[in-house]
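Fold this sequence, please.
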Amino acid sequence: MAETSKTPLLDTINSPAELRGLQPDQLRQLADELRTETIDAVSVTGGHLGAGLGVVELTTVLHYVFNTPDDKLIFDVGHQCYPHKILTERRDRIRTLRQGGGLSGFTKRAESRYDPFGAAHSSTSISSGLGFDIAHQMQGLPHRSIAVIGDGSMSAGMAYEAMNNAGSLKSRMIVILNDNEMSIAPPVGAMSAYLSRLISGKPYLSIREVGKKLAEKFPRQLSKMAQRAEEYARGMLTGGTMFEELGFYYVGPVDGHNIDHLLPVLENVRDADGGPILVHVVTEKGKGYPPAENSADKYHGVSKFDVVTGTQQKGKPNAPAYTKVFANALVKEAEKDEKIVAVTAAMPSGTGLDIFGKAFPDRTFDVGIAEQHGVTFCAGLAAGGMKPFAAIYSTFLQRGYDQVVHDVAIQRLPVRFAIDRAGLVGADGPTHAGSFDVTYLATLPGFVVMAASDEAELVHMVATAAAIDDRPSAFRYPRGEGIGLDMPEEGVPLEIGKGRIVREGNALAILNFGGRMAEVMKAADDLAAMGLSATVADARFAKPLDTDLIARLAKEHPLLVTIEEGAIGGFGSHVLQFLAENDLLDGLKVRPMILPDIFIDQDSPAKMYDVAGLNAPQIMQTVLSALDIEGKDGATKPLRA
C-alpha cells in the first residue's frame, strides 16, 4: 500500500479525466478528502448531507472506472450528488449550493456536461438511463449509461417498469442499487465480495453463455430445469433472483465503502457484454461523520451546522410551521372521528404525519415513494367507508394525477388532499415548487379546492375537509412558518365556497387566494398611505368560487386584483371566466397576479417572490399602473363613467 500523500489529492483534481490519472491505491485518500470537503461545504450552505456521505467511495470509483461525461452517470433524485459536483469541475462553486445564482442542490443539465439528466423527484434514473443507452446504440456509440438509484427509490413502480423494459430490450445499461437501509441484503463481507467479483468477471459470464447455448440443445424440460437450477443457486448466494426475473444480470451485494471491493467489480461490469446488469451496493447513509451516523435521519437534510459538533442552526422561534399546524389540527379531528386515517408517500416527517403517527399509529400509512398507489389506496379507503387524508407535497402529487382524475374525481370519492409546499419553496428550487396544483385540481368537476391565507385558516380548512363526505377536496398551504396569529382551540368547518372580507375600502379590491395575504396587507397599508383605500378579501375557495363575493367586488370597485401562488389557469382564470360569463367586465379593470411563465431558480423565498412579482412592492405597483396614477400626489384618473 502506498503511503498517504501529504499534499491533498483533491487540490490536484478538477475533473474526472484528472481523477483517472491516479493510481488505484490513491483512491482511498481522495475519497477521505472528498468526504471532508462535502461536510465542510454543506456546513456553510445547508442541504442534503447524509445521502452524499454514503456514496463518496462509490462516486469516486464510478468516475474512475467509467469515461464520464461520454459515459452517462445518472443519479436518481440527486440528494447524493454533492461529491459528484465537487469532482466534476464545480468544487470552486460548491459553497454556493442551493443559494441564489449558485449551484442547484440536484443534478441539472444546464449546469454541467457531467449532469446528463436533471433530477429531484425519485425513480427516474433507470428510465432515462435506458433512453440514453438505446440512443447510443442507435447512433453506433460505445458509451455506457449508469443509473445510481437508492433502495427507497426502488419502492416506486416506475423503477420496475423501466427495468422490465430494459430487460426486454437487452439493453447494455448498468444499474447501481445503492442500498443504504440494509433492506434487501444480508451483511456483506469478504465472501460476498469474492462472489460478486467472481460472477461479474468475463470467465463466469462466458461459461454462463456457453451453458445457455448448450441448454438450447437439450429437451425443453431439461433446459428449463438447468436454468432454474442456476437461478436458484445464484439466488441463494446473492439474493438477486428478483432482478434476474426482470432481465437483469445481478451482481452483489458489494460493500460500497470498500474501494478494493468496488473497483474490480465495476471494472468487470464495465467490460461485460450482453444484457443489462444490476450491481447491488450496500452503503451507510451519513458514513464517516459521527453526528450524521448517530442521527435518526442520518442528517438527510440539514441547515447550516458546526462541523465539530454537528449542531445545526435553528430557525427563529416565531410562529409554528404550517406543517406542524396541519398535523396538530388533524390529530384533533381524528380524536373526534375514528374513521379519519392519514396517508403519506415516504414523507412522514416532511408532511407532519410523524406527529399524527405517534398519536394514531394504526391509522397512519406510509406507502413509500409511490404517489400513484397512495392516491388510489386513499380512493379505496374512501370507498370502503374511511376518511383518508393524503398528505403529499404539491410537486409530488403531480406524479399521481391520473389517479386523482380517474380513481378519485370521476368516482366522486371523498379523499382529502393536504397539499404541503404550495407556492415557491426556496433552496430546493423549481423541481419542488408547488406551482400547478390549483390549475390541475380546480379543473376537475366536483372538486373542492381551498388555500389557507394564514395558519389559523389552515386549522379551519382541516376541519372543513374532515366534514366534506360527498366529494374530493384539497387544501393547500406554504412551506415555512405562519405569521404568528393566536390559534383557535379547534377548527370550525367553513361554509363551502364562501370567502371573507378582511378590510373594506372603495378605491380598489384585492382578492387573495392563499399564502400571499401578509404581503397583500402590507401593500394595502402602503396604498392607504397614498389615499387609496383597498377592500381586501380572502377567497378561501378556488372551487367552488364565492360568486356573490366576486360580483360585489366587481360592481363596487373600478379595479379588481386577484393574487395567487400558482401558474396560469388557476384561481384568477376561474374568476375571469365567471366575470366574462356574467357581463361583469364592463368598466372594470382586472389584473390577475400569478406565478410567471418561467421556472424560477433557487433562492430565498422572499427573493423568489420578488422574481415572481408577488411581494408587496409589486402588488402596489400593479395597482398604481392599473389605476394610471400620475405624479407623486396620488391623483388618479377616473376609471368609471
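The longest helix spans residues 27-45. Residues 9-201+239-293 form a domain with the Rossmann fold fold (CATH 3.40.50.970).
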